């Protein structure tokens, strides 16, 4: 496989580009061990889709248990064997389903599937780069992620079953291999999988940051970058700084499990046996886990916010409102996300003074989030909106971000959180603000950049069908759970029939489960549309959405190196839509200001040396022509 010179970000490649991987590649080097960022993006996306289908299947299984706790479903025994003897899921397997569902969705779908896909696809294409800073490390990043997925799923095929301690794997269930069946080999596999996953994310993150900071094309300064790139850059920085803390916590957990240490264990009695552990604290694990866990929320949501910024601006045919405010709010979220982890721990007996500090920082982080929401709404306001499936998903993402984020104000308040923390209110909150919002941001990206990934268009009617059913069902599934939480219904319970006051919520659980089943069926439309269109979809034009950013200047047919000749120069920011005085309603970043004199504004040239030079040359040329005519 030919290597490509990556340091020549612009005019040093005057050749026609035919040496950029244009020779025949084998199937293995092109599709499996590919070093082309576009192929790696597809690998992340398709793996993420497969993992999402698995996670959704697991959620349907445990929703059946919650809706009909006293009924048996013989088909479950056929598929699950001894984990569902008599057609009823066993309590310990129910906990395993919840654990693996949460782990897959948070890490393997929303982190790797979202950031891995779109950071890989868009960072080189939108910045005018031939490929990532290290294509080989990029390939390794995907394969470590893939192996992590395999290790995680292999735990379903061992005798003691998958990890069963919730997706946060709190000790002592995770620290004592003999605590329950899911604390044994299944938990070990979970820990191995997560270390591989973190290694994958660190490789990817270092690559993304290096590429953004060092390899932009001529004219592409930081303030001309699309908001997508800002979001991916800050997400990568968050991951690089927070993921190693989880690995440190995992190493200590392995020591407790295998070498008799007591980092997280103290005064434990198992049955009649008093264990020798003393001096440790499970609260230490919570501090280490949530130091990653809260930045993780933003590692998930920031790429979705960046994608939505691009999709909303393009389809509103308007400049994004408050570009600088959007960038500063992303930076604010990045910094503040490191000092709010304690709000997950208000119920641990935290010192009220410390709890107050975390409460204040938690409420402050709502400010940059609100800025982004306001700017999305202002961009949509009086826009010439095109309701493509991508645009609907982006607006859906904003809707979930608002409705889910509002309940975060309740949970960020220590005195309220103590009452709500272990109830379904928390489940409802994070499934709306993180799960649903991030998924819809991801779907917006898939619908918008599918032509760039596969050279074909998705079927719009199937896209509308998929969006509306999924959007409505997501609210029908998660919104009612707020009321269960307000009534004190605890989360993580196997059955509610044991408690008199919870009996009235069984009908709500049945309704929620049917909504979840309909939502799952709606994904068939998406999956068919996605895979069918790869081969049979309508062929895409070069710039189907009439967008300004650089990725739409590359040929529809993929080449390794992205541009066949010189990489284009950038002259302007990426959001010149519907500019007064312009003939077209979009002006690509590659169009010099000298070609758009009728629409230029004084502020276009402020602090822009290249543009000022072009403007000066154009004015001199005009003056000379006028002098000749005179």
UniProtKB/TrEMBL annotation:
Boundaries of every Cytochrome oxidase subunit I profile domain copy: 27-595
GO biological process: aerobic respiration; electron transport coupled proton transport; respiratory electron transport chain
Keywords, ordered alphabetically: Electron transport, Heme, Iron, Membrane, Metal-binding, Respiratory chain, Transmembrane, Transmembrane helix, Transport
Region (Disordered): 1-22, 598-630
Cited InterPro entries: Cyt_c_oxase-like_su1_dom (IPR023616), Cyt_c_oxase-like_su1_sf (IPR036927), Cyt_C_Oxase_1 (IPR000883), Cyt_c_Oxase_su1_BS (IPR023615)
Membrane topology listed for this record: Multi-pass membrane protein
Transmembrane segments: 44-64, 93-118, 139-158, 187-209, 230-255, 288-308, 320-341, 353-378, 390-412, 424-450, 462-485, 505-532
Residue stretches of biased makeup (Basic and acidic residues): 7-22, 603-630
SUPFAM superfamilies in alphabetical order: Cytochrome c oxidase subunit I-like
Subcellular location: Membrane
Signal peptide segment: none
GO molecular function: cytochrome-c oxidase activity; heme binding
Domain of life: Bacteria
GO CC term (a single one): membrane
Pfam families per UniProt: COX1
Protein family (similarity comment): Belongs to the heme-copper respiratory oxidase family.
Listed PANTHER family: CYTOCHROME C OXIDASE SUBUNIT 1 (PTHR10422:SF18)
Protein name: Cytochrome C oxidase
Organism: Pedobacter cryoconitis
């Amino acid at each position: 496989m030919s290597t490509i010179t990556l340091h020549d970000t612009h005019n040093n490649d005057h050749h026609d580009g035919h040496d950029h991987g244009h020779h025949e590649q084998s199937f293995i080097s092109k599709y499996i061990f590919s070093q082309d960022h576009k192929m790696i993006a597809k690998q992340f996306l398709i793996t993420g889709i497969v993992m999402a289908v698995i996670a959704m299947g697991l959620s349907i299984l445990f929703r059946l248990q919650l809706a009909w706790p006293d009924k048996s479903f013989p088909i479950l025994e056929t598929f699950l064997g001894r984990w569902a003897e008599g057609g009823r899921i066993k309590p310990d397997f129910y906990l395993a389903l919840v654990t693996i569902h949460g782990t897959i969705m948070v890490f393997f779908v929303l982190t790797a599937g979202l950031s891995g896909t779109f950071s890989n696809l868009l960072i080189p294409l939108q910045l005018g780069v031939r490929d990532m800073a290290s294509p080989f490390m990029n390939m390794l990043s995907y394969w470590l992620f893939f192996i992590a997925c395999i290790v995680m799923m292999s735990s379903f095929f061992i005798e003691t079953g998958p990890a069963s301690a919730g997706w946060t794997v709190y000790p002592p269930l995770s620290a004592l291999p003999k605590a329950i069946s899911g604390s044994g080999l299944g938990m070990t596999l979970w820990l191995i999988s997560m270390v591989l996953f973190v290694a994958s994310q660190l490789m990817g993150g270092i690559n993304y940051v290096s590429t953004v900071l060092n390899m932009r094309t001529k004219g592409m300064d930081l303030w001309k970058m699309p908001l997508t790139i800002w979001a991916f850059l800050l997400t990568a920085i968050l991951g690089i700084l927070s993921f190693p803390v989880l690995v440190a916590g995992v190493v200590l957990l392995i020591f407790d499990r295998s070498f008799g240490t007591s980092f997280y264990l103290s005064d434990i009695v198992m049955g009649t046996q008093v264990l020798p552990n003393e001096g440790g604290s499970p609260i230490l694990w919570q501090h280490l886990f949530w130091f990653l866990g809260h930045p993780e929320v933003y590692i998930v949501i920031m790429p979705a916010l960046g994608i939505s910024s691009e999709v909303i601006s393009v389809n509103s045919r308007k400049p994004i409102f408050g570009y600088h405010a959007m960038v500063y709010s992303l930076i604010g979220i990045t910094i503040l996300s490191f000092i709010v982890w304690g709000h997950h721990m208000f119920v641990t007996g935290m010192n009220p003074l410390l709890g107050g500090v975390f409460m204040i920082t938690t409420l402050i982080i709502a400010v940059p989030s609100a800025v982004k929401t306001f700017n999305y709404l202002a961009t949509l306001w009086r826009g010439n909106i095109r309701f493509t499936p991508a645009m609907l998903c982006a607006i859906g993402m904003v809707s979930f971000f608002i409705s889910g984020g509002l309940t975060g104000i309740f949970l960020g308040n220590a005195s309220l959180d103590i009452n709500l923390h272990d109830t379904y209110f928390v489940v409802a909150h994070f499934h709306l603000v993180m799960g649903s919002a991030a998924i819809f941001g991801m779907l917006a990206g898939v619908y918008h950049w599918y032509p760039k990934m596969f050279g074909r268009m998705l079927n719009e009617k199937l896209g509308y069908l998929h969006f509306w059913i999924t959007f409505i069902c997501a609210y029908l599934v998660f919104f009612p759970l707020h009321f269960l939480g307000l009534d004190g219904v605890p989360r993580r319970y196997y059955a509610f029939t044991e408690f008199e006051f919870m009996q009235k919520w069984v009908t709500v659980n049945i309704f929620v489960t049917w909504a979840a089943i309909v939502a799952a069926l709606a994904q068939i439309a998406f999956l068919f549309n996605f895979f069918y269109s790869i081969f049979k979809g309508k062929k895409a034009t070069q710039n189907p959405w009439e967008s300004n950013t650089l990725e739409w200047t590359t040929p529809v047919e993929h080449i390794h190196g992205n541009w066949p000749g010189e990489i284009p120069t950038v002259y302007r920011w990426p959001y010149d839509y519907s500019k007064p005085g312009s003939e077209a309603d979009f002006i690509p970043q590659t169009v010099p200001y000298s070609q758009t004199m009728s629409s230029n504004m004084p502020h276009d040239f402020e602090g822009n040396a290249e543009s000022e030079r072009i403007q000066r040359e154009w004015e001199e040329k005009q003056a000379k022509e006028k002098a000749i005519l005179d």
